[in-house]
Write a structure and sequence with these properties.
Helix content of chain A: under 10%
Order of helices and strands of chain A: EEEEEEEEEEE
Structural class of chain A: mainly beta
Strand content of chain A: over 45%
Structural class of chain B: mainly beta
Oligomer: heterodimer
Radius of gyration of chain A: 14 Å
Largest sheet of chain B: 7 strands, mixed
Number of helices of chain A: 0
Chain lengths: 113, 114
């Protein structure tokens, strides 16, 4: 069956370090993958999109990689700050349908001063 | 530009009742998608509407339905509420013209079924 897995445990890191979050998927062949940030009580906010023919994408302190052979995406936040503390969700396009996103369960990141 | 708005923000209903939630997309966006978020199942896709037509559907029972109006505003309806329908219901909007688009989410409607 189709499955998307993210680090189930919360990730605790010190301010200034690089946070690395993992998204693995099985039985999917997504054309693209997206990462969102969600704060408690709020809707997800889009961060980055990476397509199947792209290996890496960067935006300011954020970097995403996409390995379609390993069926894995890594999401990095460099020089992390306490304000980066949130839940991070990866999402794949579902069944080739427009705007039908299949989300992972999310990884909670806590950045400590 | 105003973001996606959802009303109401909070709702309490009892089992067997029905509920209607509303979503106003960002101006110019023609696609509205609905998601259910629960602690156990995470974010799950319900359906997507584009130009007043349902274009995609998730794996939810027929008690969950939706519609979209000519101004792109959308409503979703849940009939015969069950305890398990307690969740945060999120809508997201986008232009709807390409396969890979940023989804802009609203703040959600938190539904509690007693």
């Amino acid at each position: 069956s189709q499955k998307i897995e993210q680090n189930s445990e919360a990730l605790n890191i010190q301010e200034g370090k690089t946070a690395t979050l993992t998204c693995n998927y099985t039985n999917y062949s997504p054309a693209y993958l997206q990462w969102y940030r969600q704060d408690p009580g709020r809707g997800p906010v889009f961060l980055l999109l990476i397509r199947e023919n792209e290996k890496e994408k960067r935006k300011e302190r954020l970097k995403v990689t996409f390995d379609t052979t390993l069926k894995q995406s890594l999401f990095h936040i460099t020089a992390s700050q306490p304000a980066d503390s949130a839940t991070y969700l990866c999402a794949l396009d579902g069944s080739g349908g427009y705007n039908k996103l299949i989300f992972g369960a999310g990884t909670r990141l806590a950045v400590h001063p | 530009k105003a973001g996606v708005t959802q009303t109401p923000r909070y709702l309490i209903k009892t089992r067997g009742q029905q509920v209607t939630l509303s979503c106003s997309p960002i101006s110019g966006h023609r696609s509205v998608s609905w998601y259910q978020q629960t602690p156990g199942q995470g974010l799950q896709f319900l359906f997507e509407y584009f130009s007043e037509t349902q274009r995609n559907k998730g794996n939810f029972p027929g008690r969950f339905s939706g519609r979209q109006f000519s101004n792109s505003r959308s409503e979703m309806n849940v009939s015969t509420l069950e305890l398990g329908d307690s969740a945060l219901y999120l809508c997201a909007s986008s232009m709807g013209l390409a396969g890979a688009e940023t989804q802009y989410f609203g703040p959600g409607t938190r539904l509690l079924v007693l």
